[in-house]
């Protein structure tokens, strides 16, 4: 017996027991019966429900760029969507869009079939099928099914067979003209809808890759947040730019509280500013300075801090000229402190070209045991001493952070929640 059948059998037994029990037992039996049903229904629901890994992230934006924000309390929102009908149809899921296309054509065929059938009925065509002297409006149409077929042949202009209109009937030409013109508009609108859905630039974002994790490390004496970005296509985005923001709680001295406050988070691609040239994967870098929303965040804070990093890559599709936007997000547990992206570029001497290995696109290596925030590092840089008494100290005679020594052999518990992919490949020289 399957688990589903066993659950139903157990519920039936529990439901019939209290029918012959005492009043005191009825209450307890009913409670147990409801509890059994609740547990078994939950089991059946979970068995058929496919769990979305994104549900555990608790983020505003999914890794694929779609939003996880539910709008409630909207007044007359359906009327507003209908006022913007074309965009509403374009934004529909494919199964609903195809259903709309099939139903619109079906309704138009049936509507004009009714008109043709009424015209033939008023002319007495169906009562004089065997009368050779009767002047028919529709020759060869003897039923409503024949009227549907005639309507389809007229609107699609595939040509008439045994059924065709009679020009001597006064209503034939106006109705024929009306169906041909309206059918042309219906076909244009529906085919345009399908074409626009297929050619939407948002699908171009599927070939844009963001690294699985964001990393924080020291680079050029500054604490930086880095993300790897790549493009799978050979036709790249034109005039692409990157924008980042941090979403976290914010309150003002006046008592105003914003649970989803947006902080600017500037990223640069090497020395190009916010402009991105994606002939090969690039490292996006955000310098954590006094203007950064991450200025006072320390490694242990990643397990308790609540914020979300959202990135937008905007550019023009080279082949179509349309604007495309790719999005992704990172939550605190997806930020690796003291790591660096492993190099995936190597020069192929045999073919005299650069080789990019996307198999290691998400690979990172542990490089620095940084236990301080950017704010604390700035204080250390200014004072030359470590107020926290950790393993971070300035070398003798050092004047910059580049001379800081780290104890790379010790690992704090702040990395216990992180699983870092290790690449077995050896370092390749240029």
TrEMBL record:
Keywords: Ion channel, Ion transport, Membrane, Potassium, Potassium transport, Transmembrane, Transmembrane helix, Transport, Voltage-gated channel. InterPro entries: Ig_E-set (IPR014756), IRK_C (IPR041647), K_chnl_inward-rec_Kir (IPR016449), K_chnl_inward-rec_Kir_cyto (IPR013518), Kir_TM (IPR040445). One of its GO terms (cellular component) is monoatomic ion channel complex. It is a multi-pass membrane protein. The chain crosses the membrane at residues 96-119, 175-196. Residues 208-380 form the Inward rectifier potassium channel C-terminal domain. Residues 61-201 form the Potassium channel inwardly rectifying transmembrane domain. The keyword Membrane applies. The keyword Nucleotidyltransferase does not apply. It is found in: Membrane. It holds the Pfam family IRK_C. GO terms for molecular function: inward rectifier potassium channel activity. One of its GO terms (biological process) is potassium ion import across plasma membrane. Its main location: membrane. Belongs to the inward rectifier-type potassium channel (TC 1.A.2.1) family. PANTHER family: INWARD RECTIFIER POTASSIUM CHANNEL, INWARDLY RECTIFYING POTASSIUM CHANNEL 1, ISOFORM F. This is ATP-sensitive inward rectifier potassium channel 1. The lineage of its organism: Eukaryota, Metazoa, Spiralia, Lophotrochozoa, Mollusca.
């Amino acid at each position: 017996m399957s688990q589903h059948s066993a659950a139903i059998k157990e519920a039936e037994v529990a439901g019939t027991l209290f029918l012959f029990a005492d009043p005191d037992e009825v209450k307890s039996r009913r409670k147990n019966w409801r509890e059994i049903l609740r547990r078994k229904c939950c089991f059946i629901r979970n068995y058929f429900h496919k769990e979305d890994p994104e549900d555990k992230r608790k983020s505003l934006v999914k890794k694929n760029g779609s939003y996880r924000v539910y709008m409630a309390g909207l007044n007359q929102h359906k009327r507003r969507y209908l006022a913007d009908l074309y965009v509403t149809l374009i934004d529909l899921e494919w199964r609903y869009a195809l259903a709309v296309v099939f139903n619109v054509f079906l309704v138009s065929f049936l509507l004009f079939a009714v008109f043709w059938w009424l015209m033939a009925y008023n002319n007495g065509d169906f009562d004089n099928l065997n009368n050779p002297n009767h002047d028919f409006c529709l020759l060869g149409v003897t039923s409503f099914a024949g009227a549907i077929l005639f309507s389809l042949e007229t609107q699609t202009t595939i040509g008439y067979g045994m059924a065709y209109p009679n020009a001597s009937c006064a209503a034939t030409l106006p109705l024929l003209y009306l169906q041909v013109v309206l059918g042309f508009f219906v076909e244009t609108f529906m085919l345009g809808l399908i074409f626009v859905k297929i050619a939407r630039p948002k699908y171009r974002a599927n070939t844009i890759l963001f690294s699985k994790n964001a990393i924080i490390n020291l680079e050029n004496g500054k604490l930086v947040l880095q993300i790897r970005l790549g493009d799978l296509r050979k036709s790249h985005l034109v005039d692409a730019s990157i924008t980042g923001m941090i979403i976290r709680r914010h309150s003002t001295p006046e008592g105003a509280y914003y649970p989803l406050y947006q902080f600017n988070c500037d990223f640069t691609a090497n020395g190009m500013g916010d402009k991105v040239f994606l002939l090969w994967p690039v490292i996006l870098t955000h310098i954590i300075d006094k203007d950064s929303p991450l200025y006072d965040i320390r490694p242990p804070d990643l397990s308790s801090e609540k914020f979300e990093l959202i990135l937008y890559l905007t550019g023009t599709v080279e082949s179509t000229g349309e604007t495309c936007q790719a999005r992704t997000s990172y939550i605190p547990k997806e930020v690796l402190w003291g790591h660096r992206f492993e190099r995936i570029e190597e020069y192929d001497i045999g073919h005299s070209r650069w080789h990019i290995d996307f198999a290691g696109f998400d690979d990172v290596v542990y490089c620095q045991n940084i236990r301080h925030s950017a704010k604390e590092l700035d204080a250390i840089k200014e004072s030359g001493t470590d107020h926290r008494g950790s393993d971070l100290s300035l070398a003798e005679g050092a004047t910059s952070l580049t001379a800081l020594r780290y104890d790379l052999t010790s690992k704090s518990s702040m990395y216990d929640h992180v699983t870092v992919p290790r690449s077995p490949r050896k370092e390749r020289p240029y």
